[in-house]
UniProtKB/TrEMBL annotation, chain A:
GO cellular component: ATP-binding cassette (ABC) transporter complex
Protein name, UniProt field: ABC transporter permease
Similarity annotation: Belongs to the binding-protein-dependent transport system permease family. HisMQ subfamily.
Organism of this sequence: Pelagibius litoralis
Chief location category: membrane
Keywords for the protein's UniProt record, in alphabetical order: Cell inner membrane, Cell membrane, Membrane, Transmembrane, Transmembrane helix, Transport
Pfam family, one: BPD_transp_1
Membrane topology classification: Multi-pass membrane protein
Superkingdom in the source lineage: Bacteria
ABC transmembrane type-1 domain: residues covered: 17-215
Protein location: Cell inner membrane; Cell membrane
Cell inner membrane in keyword set: yes
From TrEMBL, chain B:
Name of the protein in question: ABC transporter permease
Transmembrane intervals: 20-42, 54-75, 95-113, 163-182, 194-217
One Pfam assignment: BPD_transp_1
Primary localization class, coarse: membrane
Organism: Pelagibius litoralis
GO molecular function: transmembrane transporter activity
Every ABC transmembrane type-1 domain range: 18-217
Family: Belongs to the binding-protein-dependent transport system permease family. HisMQ subfamily.
PANTHER family: ARGININE_ORNITHINE TRANSPORT PROTEIN AOTQ, CATIONIC AMINO ACID TRANSPORTER, MEMBRANE COMPONENT
Length: 241, 231
């Protein structure tokens, strides 16, 4: 095994890392902003409000991210009006925006369901207490339901962030030079797929664990009041077979 | 509508692709179940070596994107296998897209299944297993007659989630050139210049797979929880 071509092309990998980081963080940020109102709508009992959001999340959670990206990039990109639009707006020819749109909608759908679950898991006593204090519905939502829901949603959301990071690797399929895209260029230029992909896998691995560490730290801060005073681990449990 | 006629025209092609997708999904599920059970048993074993092997496996797999692993096994594996082959003077071995895809997906989901099974095994009361030994059953008999049927109920929800994700991951095999439903739709969309309608069809095909799976999983869940009282 020879890793020198990878060290020689480190700037390509860095550039790819930068693209991945931009793509994932923008998708997550916009997706989260979309997900909060959608989740509130999803908890509504009115089927006209709840229904469309349900259809949106069902579609985006039930189909592969790859298909969603193809639908936007090849499908939408070939529509007459998009071709006309991209003549006046040059940036619409760039695959980056289609990938970003697909990732954003996908993560918005997953995050909506995560936050909805957290909102519905609010202990009823908390809401009753807020009502008893004379808070309006909007104020209850803002001051009681959402803050406690965000806390409860954090572990599931950290999984979603990791999934998004890993899912973003498919951006390289539509010509974007993200982290994996860089590895594919190196692999085809030097014919060393083994080394190139191992290196990029290691890179993704490090980012994943940095993120997991970050979320652990956040959870510790946000859940400080919930931490058990003594760890009751059942490590002594008898091992089966 | 023109697009609809084309869709009908290409339907046999798309159906062929759908069969490939479903085959890949079930074949990888089989591998994942075996690997997952193995990983779970190793994680719970008394030997430190096998515990650390299983932990390394599940940690590494869950830290790396599925597509990276797939490309690594498909392109990198090809070279490595033949390097080894050259040493032992084997003939040229072709790692085809089907093998690489199924192995990768099975390998990845084996790690996720391992975590699911580990939790499920821990929720089986030890007394049941001890009773099995008391009757003179061998380790293997206790495993498949008592442990597996008992833990299935606890594993099923997690297993169902893994299956739903696995099915969607099979779309990636189109990237390494396997003629699944995604690649077939891409070809049809390219030659008719109507990619939107073909990809939309694939999306709905996946929605159908998902919906049917959810029904089946609910049914299985009810069957396995027959003896459990619910509030």
């Amino acid at each position: 095994m020879d890793f020198t071509p990878i060290f020689e092309n480190y700037s390509l990998y860095l550039e790819g890392f930068w693209t991945t980081a931009k793509l994932v963080s923008w998708a997550l940020a916009i997706g989260l902003c979309l997900a909060v109102p959608l989740a509130i709508m999803r908890t509504s009992r009115n089927p006209l409000i709840n229904g469309p959001v349900w259809a949106f999340t069902y579609f985006f959670r039930g189909t592969p991210l790859l298909i969603q990206m193809f639908l936007l990039y090849y499908g939408l990109g070939q529509q007459q009006f998009m071709i006309e639009l991209s003549q006046s707006y040059e940036f619409l020819k760039d695959a980056y925006w289609y990938a970003l749109a697909a990732f954003t909608l996908n993560t918005a759908a997953y995050t909506t369901e995560i936050i909805r679950g957290a909102i519905e898991g609010t202990p009823y006593g908390e809401i009753e207490a807020a009502r008893a204090c004379g808070m309006s519905k909007a104020m209850t939502l803002r001051r009681v339901t959402l803050p406690s829901a965000f806390r409860r949603a954090l572990p599931a959301y950290s999984n979603e962030v990791i999934f998004m990071l890993h899912g973003s690797a498919i951006a390289s399929v539509i010509t974007i030079v993200d982290l994996l895209g860089a590895a594919r260029i190196v692999a085809s230029r030097y014919y060393n797929p083994f080394e190139a992909f191992i290196a990029v896998g290691f890179f993704y691995f490090c980012i994943t664990f940095a993120l997991i560490g970050g979320f652990k730290w956040l959870e510790n801060r946000w859940f400080a009041h919930l931490r058990p005073r003594e760890q009751v681990a059942d490590k002594k449990r008898h091992q089966p077979a | 509508m023109e697009g609809f006629d084309k869709l009908i025209e290409y339907m046999p092609n798309l159906m062929e692709g759908a069969v490939v997708t479903v085959t890949v999904a079930f074949a990888s599920l089989a591998i994942a179940l075996v690997l997952g059970l193995g990983a779970a048993m190793m994680k719970l074993s008394k030997s430190r070596a096998s515990r650390s092997v299983a932990t390394t496996y599940t940690t590494v797999i869950r830290g790396v994107p599925d597509l990276v692993l797939m490309l690594l096994i498909f392109f990198g594996g090809q070279i490595q296998v033949n390097n080894i082959g050259a040493y032992f003077e084997w003939d040229y071995i072709d790692v085809d897209a089907f093998t690489a895809g199924v192995l990768t997906i099975g390998f990845i989901f084996g790690a996720y299944m391992g975590e699911t099974f580990r939790g499920a095994i821990l929720s089986v009361p030890v007394g049941l297993l001890e009773a099995g030994y008391a009757y003179g059953m061998s380790k293997w008999q206790v495993f498949y007659r008592i442990l597996v049927p008992q833990m299935m109920r606890h594993a099923l929800p997690g297993l169902g989630n893994n299956w739903l994700v696995l099915m969607k991951t099979t779309a990636l095999v189109s990237i390494i050139g396997l003629h699944d439903i995604v690649l077939k739709a891409g070809q049809a969309g390219g030659s008719t210049r109507l990619p939107f309608i073909f990809y939309l069809f694939v999306a709905f095909a996946f929605l159908v797979f998902t919906t049917v799976s959810i029904w089946l999983l609910n049914w299985l869940n009810r069957r396995y929880s027959v003896g459990v009282r619910r509030a």
